[in-house]
Amino acid sequence: MSAQVWLAAGDIPAPEIAYARVAPMLVVFGAAVVGVLVEAFLPRRARYATQVVLALGALVGAFAAVVALARAGGGRRGLAAAGAVAVDGPTLFVQGTVLVLSILAVLLVAERRLDAGQDAFAAQAAALPGSAAERAAISAGAAQTEVFPLTLFAVGGMLLFPAANDLVTMFVALEVLSLPLYLLCGLARRRRLLSQEAALKYFLLGAFSSAFFLYGVALLYGFAGSVRLGDIAAASAATAGVEPLLLAGTALVGVGLLFKVGAVPFHAWTPDVYQGAPTPITAFMAAATKVAAFGALLRVFYVALAGLRWDWQPVLAGVAVATMVLGAVVALVQQDIKRMLAYSSIAHAGFLLTGVIATSRAGLAATLFYLAAYGFTTLGAFAVVTLVRDPGGEATHLSRWAGLGRRSPLLAGVFTLFLLAFAGIPLTSGFMGKFAVFSAAVAGGAVPLVVVGVLASAVAAFFYVRVIVLMFFSEPVPDGPTVAAPGVATTATITLGAAATVVLGVLPQPVLQLAHQAATFIH
Fold first, then answer.
1. Is 57 inside a domain boundary?
2. In a 10 Å sphere around its CB, with 0-12 CB exposed, 13-18 middle and 19+ buried, how is residue 244 labelled?
3. Does any domain span residue 5?
4. What is the spatial distance between Cα 134 and Cα 340, in angstroms, rounded to a whole number?
5. How many domains does the chain have?
6. What is the DSSP string of 153-178?
7. In sequence order, what are the residues at sequence separation of 6 or more whose Cβ sits closer than 8 angstroms to the Cβ of residue 300?
């Protein structure tokens, strides 16, 4: 009997991990675990430098692993982790973009020269704002170095999210990237109550969206008998007529994904969280999280639900229209620069959905290019916001930015570049991104959607130009904000963001070609 059991066990194939294919994720998660150990065992005075070096080293190493996988070609691409992870062109492009953006975000997080040698995070997160415990922590020079392993855990989730080949793995990745962000949003040193309110709102709404996503996973499993994206696609192709489980599951999974990209009507968290979170974390969320979330959304709709596109395309088109229009119109009345950029990001989510709806290789390539262009511009814009300061922290009310171009013409000029890119002005990355997604949508027959997108872009240009006029053609306010001298980290972030914005606008072809070469999913 034992021999028969042995033979039967020998017939069971061992799961293949393919460690080389998941090396970028392993590097980041491994560094995050080491960062937790650093917090536990290293003296406080040595933690900051160690965490910065560890985080940047891990992200650079992970990016090198992504480049190696991309250069290796098809031999290193395929399924990994027993089929739970798909390493293909879109995965590597999104992972590379997320890692570069995360490197710049970590530089912002590490900045300590802007506010008397302190960073943007609360000295003791568990202490009540204004309490004796908080004052004691500040006087002792305590620093919140836990933000670095938390950021690495979030980055690891972002790398896994667009690579997930089944819905359970995708859900795990969603939670791994979300939970650290909930904590990071509540750690602002200035305006503690606003920051904690933002974290609570993000957590509650994020929990609801995760529940919708998980319920949709259950319904799709009930329909297909599997959570693998390829199996769901095969079951969908073999179905004739209306299948309630398939449609309901698609809708609920879509709710969870659209929440993460900040699309209407699942956008309500975005302005409050962007305003209340520490600005380096806002930059990280606005850039890297959106890139990873769109990577996952593209995989679900292009792989698992490709055969159902005639059902989800009209719904997604309606969401795109609402997202573009509401984001552009509501941004017109915002008086806080971070809230204005939040509604701008909502409008850009609508433009990106226009590329998704094209359901073609050109649409996929255009969306990937737009994600890269948007990410660099967004990080640079929020990095500029960290430099305009009042005694109580960053000067985010628009009235405080009046006359900024006279006091600091270089900083105002760089911010103008980012605003023009958001508006889609020629010779900027924003123009090439919009042109690419709109062209793909027209080729896919979505001409009415493109018309709405062009009109929404025209409306959005108004509030971008309003800020430019305010900076250069308005009188400076008495006792106006100061422009902090940026440290090396912030300077590097702004410089690289501006350089990418110009290069992707003037010489976009290499990245467009790279995106086109990457625009093929493993089915």
1. yes
2. exposed
3. no
4. 31
5. 1
6. HHHHHHHHGGGBSBHHHHHHHHHHHH
7. 167, 170, 229, 253, 254, 257
**Which amino acid is located at 159 in the chain?**
L
- Quote the strand ranges of 17-110, DSSP E: 78-80, 85-87
Q: Is residue 4 part of a domain?
A: no
Helix axes 244-261, 192-224, angle to 10 degrees: 160
Cβ–Cβ contacts within 10 Å for residue 203, how many? 19
The pair of structure tokens assigned to 242 is 């209306």
Q: Residue 13: is its pLDDT beyond 80?
A: no
- Of 279, 290, 280, nearest in space to 55 by CA: 280
Residue 8 resides in a domain: no
Q: What is the per-residue pLDDT across 400-410, written as a single tens digit (0 to 9) for each? A: 888 888 888 99
Residue 330 to residue 454: CA distance in whole angstroms: 17
Residue 310 CB: number of other CB atoms within 10 A?
8
Q: Of 170, 103, 136, nearest to 383 (Cα)?
A: 103
Closest CA to 354 of 430, 441, 257: 441
Give me the domain span that covers residue 469: 13-518
Single-letter amino acid, residue 45: R
- What's the mean pLDDT in 24-50? 92
Contact predicate 428/421, CB 8 Å: yes
Cβ distance 98 to 158 under 8 Å?
Answer: yes
The answer to whether the beta carbons of residues 336 and 272 sit under 8 Å apart is: no
Question: Mean pLDDT across the stretch 426-453?
Answer: 93
| pLDDT range class, residue 117, cuts 50, 70, 90 | low
Retrieve residue 10's tokens.
């020998």
> Can you spell out the DSSP letters for 88-140?
SHHHHHHHHHHHHHHHHHHHHHH--SSBTTB-SB-S-TTSPTT-HHHHHHHHT
Burial of 78 (0-12, 13-18, 19+ CB in 10 A): middle
Residue that the structure tokens 């995070």 belong to: 121
**Alpha-carbon span 466 to 22, nearest angstrom:** 46
- The pTM of this model reads 0.93
369 token code pair = 């290019």
